[in-house]
Amino acid sequence: MASLLAIARAVALVVTLLARGAEPQAPQRQSIPGVARDDVADYTVLTAGRPFGTQTVRRTADGECRVVFEFNDRGRGPRLTQRAVLDAAGIPTLIETEGHDYWKKPVRERFSIERRKADWKSSAEQGSRAVSAPAFYVTFEGAPVELGWLARALLAAPERRLALLPDGEARIERIGTLQLSSKGRSRMVTQYEITGLGFTPAPVWLDEDGGFFAAGSEWFMTIRAGWEDSASALTAVQARRTSERQRSLAKALARKPRGPLVITHARVFEPERLRMSPPATIVISGNRVAQVGPDGTIPIPRDAEVVDAAGKSVLPGLWDMHVHLDFESGALMNIAAGVTSVRDLANDTDRLLDARRGYDEGTTIGPRVILAGFVDGPGPYAGPTKVLVDSPGEAIKAVDRYKSLGYEQIKIYSSVKPELVPVIIERAHRHGMRVSGHVPAFMTAEQVVRLGFDELQHMNFVFLNFMADKVKDTRTPARFTAIPEHLAEVDLKSERVGRFIALLAERKIVVDPTLNAFEEFYLDRSGTMARGMAAVADRLPPTVRRAYLSGGLPVPPGMDEPYRATFEAMLRMLVALHRAGITLVAGTDATAGFSLHRELELYAEAGLPAAEVLRIATLGAATVMHREKDLGSIVPGKLADLIVVDGDPSQRIGDIRRVETVVKDGILFRSSDLYRALGVRADAASASVDSPTSR
Question: pLDDT at position 61, please?
């Protein structure tokens, strides 16, 4: 991730730094207090292995460190500068950052320590604190090299731990070394992991001199210039480390009952009837539901483990139909939140297949994963993928490969040429695969629906269908900002809108609204806790919690009300689609687990009955993906994916946040245990849940 604070955010927007004053000087090898010799260097920022940005680190004549960090991500992206002074122990005593962030919002951040008093101020927060011992400030907008600074400061600190400012504590662990070879050169690098910045440890690589060498993942990595072809070797080592940690957690936190698992006094949600049952007993044998019936009508086997669900609800496992799965924190977070099935709509193919194998075998903890293959076209706005197609032959080859790997769906992205869309659709449908995605640039939603799309991702593309004369190129952030600019021109009750909704219904189009993402874009403001995370913010690790103060899109002067009105219009459109009989699926494209709970709350806030919202997130999703014979409801013969909730979300959808016990494929998990492993404080309900008893 781009900054220390961004590392803390599960699905985070990358933030950056921009030059202030003169351009950086050429690299110099003189030492800077607290800065390793080889930090004074050039770096390349990679996405999916492709260069898309740079970081430069220089020194000034008076010993200050200057950092410039920028990248271009589909027309988004930061360009900022950092001026830093570090003491002899490598701890910043001054950091000044200016420029603009990922969404082009102005950034001006300053931190300083003088006379044992720390002061900090940014657009999102400000504060001060007396410091009596060394403490490392985590910038709100920072460059990857800061991770190297923190690593060295931790290595020099007693017990390799430091207090963080404004809050928290970081620790470091040495993992191992790796010999790299590239272009006839050789270099030894050492991997470290820093805890305290996010849900899981943050990996960082230092070179022989202790200089920052690289940090990141398959999706986003910053690496020393000239060593870009070594990125895959680093991420492969990191992946093995993640798998080792995940296997250990599975042994500690996943439990296979010794005999049948019985849940008694359960009010079972029946999505077919949109109701809760009277108190019932559920018997699970192996990974299947064996019996379900009223309490007292089903004998409890002698060797059974019993969960008493009196006063609670039992629901089928939830589905998140729009994820980009994080293989460590995201996998655990989903299960902790009761999300037992997900549909991944873009990811690193090799890592995703390996991760899914571990989840299915039970060697690691994670949800069932439905695979959707991501396809885009080359160009300046290409998405973060290695699958870029520019001809019919390339498009057909990409679809065929995804099919051979077990993918069930193709997701078309914004830079695919319009003339390739029907080629991809025809090939995918020939293979029996679904087709969905963004509406490619210079096309409308109506056009792709008539060509054969099965599903539309994101509610903004529904609105852009009526703004095609105003917004033709949707590869850029204009696909978000143009809607509030032209919303007043769209009458949701007009004949034109009605005809389009009727077309969606006629073609049986599924819509994946991802409303929680647009709530953030249009309603969140810098300095205020994100609306979608407010209910759980106090449970999050301190550095993660801070990240949700960053706000959403930059709001131009005079546009606050149109931005708010845009989200309200999206809620009204959701209701209109539902009333027209259009199938909705609940997806997030955001932080795992918690964001799905918020997505469901938004459907209820829009006006959908809570029981209908639960049906969408259970049997509805299973039916869309043709899994209804095995998943989506709790009936004999189906797979044992279910959750115990303290409350009744069929009446109060917010109760869906109170998951206590999760069963996935017959394996038992305590939600509070999984959250604790991620540094998330369990709520009162989860903390008080009793362990199953043996009968």
Answer: 79
